[in-house]
Design goal:
Layout (H helix, E strand, L loop, with lengths): L28 H18 L20 H24 L4 H21 L7 H16 L5 H13 L10 H10 L3 H7 L3 H16 L4 H15 L3 H24 L6 H17 L4 H17 L12 H5 L3
Length: 315
């Protein structure tokens, strides 16, 4: 394996900044990809209001996470994304790269848990975005379908060491048959390519704000995904609540409409009452934002328009 980038090798801001601000020219391509991945994670965390998830209003259904902790986690794991991209830049997508990326991923997971005092802020996201960063670094073709296909190929290669994902995913897979982040990657990220990205594009085209467009993408993913985070916390009944509730928000007009906003807040209250959180869907939204930024040729993930919530509370 090549060199290991030290923790926090470059100054990293916690809040995504406008795409009009230039990325420092000193950053290598792996570092730029890692920067986009980190910003995608922060943008997902900051998006408000999200049902049951950490956002600018508070911790949602989580007792051990906060927005500050999510930001610090994203900053902590960014150098490991850069190392994955560095390894993939000139290497073939083969079992050697698969093993190397797995080692780096486990290092990222350890660093994340150290930063969050043991809380799982981004375990699934390390797997999801790590694969996509590798695929983006390996290829000059930055179309989302191409990156997802190459990332899926890398994921499906055999890896003899212990899996990156932990026992919760194994339990849910055995009990409910849901394959989680691993299955999503094996299938070339269908909920990102066929749900998240089209919903994001559609909402933008009809004039929705960036916040509401991203919420629409999240809800579209939630309405179809068997989310292992939801299943682990509440079983099939909780998953049906999430599927029905997110579908209803979209059917009555979606985020940005009075009916859609009301239905979204109803779903949020129900998720918090049941202590369920669609964390798997959140990881795939971050992947959606990452691939969207690459496809659009952006050098930053832009800030959305939900920033006021942190200062003034829920709407």
């Amino acid at each position: 394996m090549g060199r290991l980038i030290p923790i926090n090798p470059i100054p990293i801001q916690d809040v995504p900044i406008s795409g009009l601000v230039q990325t420092p020219v000193t950053l290598s391509r792996p570092e730029r990809l890692a920067r986009l991945a980190r910003q995608s994670l922060v943008a997902e965390a900051e998006l408000t209001p999200k049902p049951g998830l950490v956002d600018r209003r508070g911790s949602g259904s989580h007792a051990d996470l906060s927005l500050d902790r999510m930001r610090r986690s994203a900053r902590t794991i960014a150098p490991y994304f850069a190392e994955m991209a560095f390894e993939a830049a000139t290497a073939p997508i083969d079992e050697t790269l698969r093993a190397t990326v797995a080692v780096i991923g486990r290092q990222a997971e350890t660093a994340m848990l150290r930063t969050t005092a043991g809380s799982n802020a981004h375990k699934g996201a390390i797997w999801v975005l790590g694969l996509l960063v590798c695929a983006a670094s390996h290829s000059a073709n930055l179309r989302p379908e191409n990156i997802a296909r190459n990332a899926g190929y890398l994921a499906r290669l055999p890896e003899r060491a212990r899996p990156l994902l932990g026992s919760h995913g194994e339990l849910v897979r055995n009990r409910y048959g849901a394959t989680g982040a691993r299955g999503e990657a094996f299938a070339n990220f269908p909920h990102v390519i066929e749900a998240g990205l089209p919903a994001l594009t559609k909402a933008r085209k009809i004039g929705r704000t960036e916040r509401d467009s991203r919420l629409s993408a999240l809800l579209e993913i939630m309405s179809h995904l068997d989310d292992t985070c939801v299943l682990y916390r509440g079983g099939r009944e909780a998953q049906e609540v999430v599927h029905r509730g997110s579908t209803l928000v979209l059917e009555v007009g979606g985020p940005g409409t009075p009916e859609g906003n009301a239905a979204l807040l109803d779903l949020d209250r129900e998720c918090i009452r049941r202590r369920i959180s669609p964390g798997g869907s959140a990881d795939l939204l971050a992947a959606t934002l990452f691939l969207d930024a690459l496809e659009q040729g952006r050098i930053e993930v832009e800030r959305d328009n939900s920033f006021w919530e942190e200062a003034y509370g829920a709407n």
